């Protein structure tokens, strides 16, 4: 298929995409990593990418839909149709009203907007010019992606002589962005997914790399894909924010496609990953708390997948392979945190007379044969894990500090190194060859641009890599605090402020919170955070329970019937900051996105005097009505996070006690700025429109009932973005936002 044919086919599929730059890489949708969300590494050779967001659709960020109040009976079809029409008219009326309000208010900030935009553009150009896209070397070839193109260069020739293998511009889709790339083991094929920021689904294009690259196949609605062999591709399809089917397709001789696995449980989401040595392709079926892995032997990719360990409620595990032994990261056993496990004497159970590993051999790797290799210390988060031929490396987080632990399979030793104190996030670079002797990664923080480091297994030391000159951030101070929550639990806080700032109690403070799904607060570098530091702001990140900053138990202590603990943590954090002289309530703003809107919105109801303003991005603000609607695509799997109010009256009352929408009342609220997206499939606009209306009415009711002189009426503003979908927007759109 030529490029023109591909263009016509994609147009026939009504595929539309918007360009997304590196400004917000954590929001590009990537598959599950082995442990949790990491940034996306574009180029790889049949290896899972890293994210930040996140995680697969439906596995981390909730789909949200505003529905009728609890207790409402299911209406008849005629009444239902009438209700839908009425709801649509109300939606249009509310949207028109909010757009009019926005058009009246936004000119007030025109001068400020112009100044901020110019500053952010300056910072963006300063730091993006010095951060190139990942380079992947396979033998003599180097692959890399830039500006919507995939390039191939010879390692010895330099990138000046690189040839273009693929270009979005040439296909007539300049508004698309490349989400994921997989190169076949023999480098004859390349699979590329294109995605729109207005949609959760991607389209996969498979090209044959010959003198004139040609398109072999186009697959719509694809989420993850991996090469099991030179000409055999496995992929998952996505529908209604769910991935439950795995297909195999071939490209030589008898070309065919067949279904190889289907997940029947709506709570589980399926993705694919290849072990580092490319011996196995793993089919991973994960819920929020439980997982199951099936293996495809890459030497015999047409054989049926083999189950490693049947799913056990509460047990999560992930598979790696090295020298005929399976290595497993699992929560099995006490405490229920991640541990490194080696399958018992796996090599001696292999049938060496056959080419493929038999199902019996894989089955013998069940949990009854697992042997402990490494266990985490208390309150330690396993952020990521990478396997090499003679070593494995683990990236850990403990009370805000980053560490790496190196396990040597040769000397049977473990070495732990504390990473620089300013570092808050890391991005593991892709290492396609498991025999590599060096592990490369980048460290960053909200106010420190990424800096490249390397760990040498031969030298057993950490090396800071020399890169192009990047401005060094020297005027920012990083402080780590512990706040005592209501039940005496210590809650970590990370604080940034300008070293030259005087009288910190007079400085404005921006507090960040998330606290859901076991996901850490996003603390990667952002130009706008650095700008705020330069303007004298204080930034605080509250690592409350419900998030994952201190391991899986930290998440368990803040979900379902423990959700209020996250609210208590947030309240304690803000109070401690004020007590220590970091700003004061009248100069404090609270920021949250997606499910972080639950705790932020709850605090706004219970302790409005603690903050002067609240900024929400695509917020989840009506837990109760959402969890009452099981027909929504993600409600069932979300029960592991929020509970099931339909079957548990106690759960219903508990959710109602903290749900932001349900607890709005006439009082003096802080000012509120909300960004929402018309194309958000997870948090549709109607619910946010009604939340804004209810909040504004409550604030005005309070003002009308009080006759205090100089009574303050908060600004409650909603900005509806026509582009973008659920916190996933391009640099240009984020800049305007």
TrEMBL record:
Any one of the GO BP annotations: proteolysis
Peptidase S9 prolyl oligopeptidase catalytic domain location: 524-702
Domain Peptidase S9A N-terminal: 122-461
Keywords, comma-separated and alphabetical: Cytoplasm, Hydrolase, Protease, Serine protease
Location of this chain's protein in the cell: Cytoplasm, Cytosol
Main location: cytoplasm
Leader sequence residues: none
The enzyme's E.C. designation: 3.4.21.-
Ligase as UniProt keyword: no
InterPro entries linked: AB_hydrolase_fold, Pept_S9A_N, Peptidase_S9_cat, Peptidase_S9A, Serine_Peptidase_S9A
Any matching Pfam family: Peptidase_S9_N
The protein, known as: Prolyl endopeptidase
Protein's organism: Hippolais icterina (icterine warbler)
Lineage of source species: Eukaryota, Metazoa, Chordata, Craniata, Vertebrata
